[in-house]
Amino acid sequence: MMQLEEFFYCVGCGKMVKVHDAKALFRTGFFRVVLPLGCCSDCSRV
Ligand SMILES: [Zn+2]
User: CA angle, 11 as apex, 29 and 31 as ends, to 5°?
Assistant: First the structure.
């Protein structure tokens, strides 16, 4: 069974990224209600 919480929408890539690779997760914003917004390590190290 897939856990939807393991993925978030990276605002940098514009695609789904595993939470494991997240550099920062935004607790305030949600995408389509169920998907958390965040920023993956690739987009955060710029
Ligand atoms: Zn990214």
Answer: 40
